[in-house]
Amino acid sequence: MSGGHGSRPTLEAVAAHAGVSRATVSRVVNGGAGVRAEVRDKVQQSVEALGYVPNSAARSLVTRRTGAVAVVIAEPETRVFSDPFFAQQLRGISRELSERDMQLLLLLLEQRKDYERIGRYLSGGHVDGALMFSLHTEDPLPAMANESGLPTVFGGRPGWPGADREPRPLYVDTDNRGGARQAVEHLLERGRRRIAVITGPLDQTSALDRLHGYRDALDVMEADPALVAHGGFTAEGGERAMAELLDRTPDLDAVFAGSDLMASGAIRTLRAYGRRVPEDVAVVGYDDLEPAAWADPPLTTVRQDVEGMGRMMAELLMRRLGLAPESRGADGVPASVVTSARLVVRASS
Amino acid sequence: MSGGHGSRPTLEAVAAHAGVSRATVSRVVNGGAGVRAEVRDKVQQSVEALGYVPNSAARSLVTRRTGAVAVVIAEPETRVFSDPFFAQQLRGISRELSERDMQLLLLLLEQRKDYERIGRYLSGGHVDGALMFSLHTEDPLPAMANESGLPTVFGGRPGWPGADREPRPLYVDTDNRGGARQAVEHLLERGRRRIAVITGPLDQTSALDRLHGYRDALDVMEADPALVAHGGFTAEGGERAMAELLDRTPDLDAVFAGSDLMASGAIRTLRAYGRRVPEDVAVVGYDDLEPAAWADPPLTTVRQDVEGMGRMMAELLMRRLGLAPESRGADGVPASVVTSARLVVRASS
């Protein structure tokens, strides 16, 4: 609490203490190139004796490195903190960055005007790169990332206009379409014939791809509208969507929900309507996070390695920054990653 | 994704475009003092024409302002993302900072070595101030805040060694002791006589103060050890603590848990042991966040305005930074704030 910036030892104080020039101290602090070993040692001793901490604003003018990475989740805080998906992805990112001694800065979004300030922050030279996830089609974030010139890695397949232009955005995704197909094929194998689907927001590729996987498994071009409801990736949304489906299609015998949270909401509604799970209605979720294990009955779901995806996002960014060995695609540029998804069968189906 | 720092227009490019010196552009970008209006306009036009964004590292050397505030929660990410208390406090902070157009940077902690990096970050001139909460007695964060010279506001009454020395740490707290006393007095009024307590970590002042409030209500100097168990502020901890208490003191007829999450865990254990709530055992929690309303039966609890405390922390910091009108205590320095707590009676007692 005490002091203020003024009380910290300055570069000049270190120079005076070591009996060298300011420029020499600056060179040592910024890596020591071109400074004799005994001079370097003397400066280091003075740095330690005085407890000098180089001002990063000054240092980053020299090194053009800040040692920090911005993480932006394109969702209101309320969702960020209530959906375990984000905690898990952040954990992966955090572990990977921590191992590289990079500082993670989580930027929260809530109101429209927060975007503007975040755009300025990303363009302001405060960070070396950015990780962005849970983007929606109309999100201003990709354009901001582009304008800032910051190396950026996205979580989830890019679906925004222009995402297919070169240079292609770098991203980490999971096989959402294949995972959803497995889920619905499993329900078919169990003899279910009226299979409904609860989707996430269809302006997100993850939600869209899961709906496509549902169609693939049923081998239809379009889903029967009586069997589709939107749950917005929240538990409350799943609750509402399930009620809509039961009102519209009382004879449904299964439901595939595009997230575990929506599935747990759907189970609550089924119970309220007196339907037994899985005897009357089988339920399958997606994600395999805590809500799947806590659900009653425990949820059949599709497992994706969410923490691993977070780690990979951070690793791809480190490669872009030249801080990790490059792995390149066939065309010689760092390659995006799509991880696999796999069905986990439990009592709800 | 494209470009890199090199592709952004430079100060020099703006100077050339406007036909003025580099120093003039720099002065305009940093507030325009001492520059004639028509020159300022010309530079502004060039800034816009080229899409120039001043490098904050350069600018902050001049203005000594970054426009950013660090928020550090002294808990592992797993707790930060599973306890709605933190989401709520962050929401308050985020709203207040957003109104002042300051960027919130959330720094996550997980491993011991993260502290070191965070210490360097705080000392590095990246932010104008810091907000820290959920500190433990042995936390290195207060010392780091002190060494960094950064204006800092704490959430929760400071309990670390030296916290009572001048200048006193600035903090926002709630009346934990009074709130807990109300909770236990309520149980006494309902005729309960064997009232147990489940505490949070006693190296946190919030947990300690709530235990003291329990003792105040029972009018004892020390709590009966057979009636005290530690739940670590988590639902799982509450579950375990309740089992310990029932094994040790089977005739208990009430329990006061120091958080709603611990109370919800306690209710699960009571159900598993075949005890009815509130008929056999009355339960009171603390916080009045979502878990209280979701609990079955809904939880009697102590309400504290968590979002409001977040707002106040941010506001106190803005005052310290001279960005909001000062309100000063009797001795002329900005004053810490302690908000009130109030019992909310529901079905669990």
> How many helical stretches of chain A?
14
| Main sheet: strand order of chain A | 2-1-3-4-5-11
CATH superfamily label of the largest domain in chain A: Response regulator
Question: How many domains make up the coordinates of chain A?
Answer: 3
Structural category of chain A is alpha/beta
Supply the CATH architecture of the largest domain in chain A. Answer: 3-Layer(aba) Sandwich
Q: What general form of chain A does the structure show? A: elongated
Query: Based on the structure, what is the oligomeric state of the protein chains?
Result: homodimer
Total strand segments of chain A: 12
| Main β sheet profile of chain A | 6 strands, parallel
Helix content of chain A: 40-55%
Q: End-to-end distance of chain A, in Å?
A: 58 Å
Kindly provide the name of the CATH class of the largest domain in chain A: Alpha Beta
User: Could you give the order of the helices and strands of chain A?
Assistant: HHHHEHHEHEHEEHEHEHEHEHEHEE
Largest interface: A-B, 65 and 64 residues
Mean pLDDT of chain A: 89
Unreliable spans of chain A are: 1-6
Plain-language structure description:
The structure is a homodimer of 349-residue chains. The first copy, chain A, is of the alpha/beta class and 349 residues long. Chain A is built from 14 helices and twelve strands. The relative contact order of chain A is 0.11. In chain A, the strands form three sheets. In chain A, strands 2-1-3-4-5-11 form a six-stranded parallel sheet, with helices on both faces. In chain A, strands 7-6-8-9 form a four-stranded parallel sheet, with helices on both faces. A two-stranded antiparallel sheet of chain A has the order 10-12. Chain A has three domains: 5-63, Orthogonal Bundle (434 Repressor (Amino-terminal Domain)); 68-173 and 308-337, 3-Layer(aba) Sandwich (Rossmann fold), CATH 3.40.50; 176-303, Rossmann fold (3-Layer(aba) Sandwich). Chain A is elongated. Helices cover 44% and strands 15% of the residues of chain A. At the A-B interface, helix 4, helix 5, helix 6, strand 2 and helix 7 of A face helix 4, helix 5, helix 6, strand 2 and helix 7 of B.
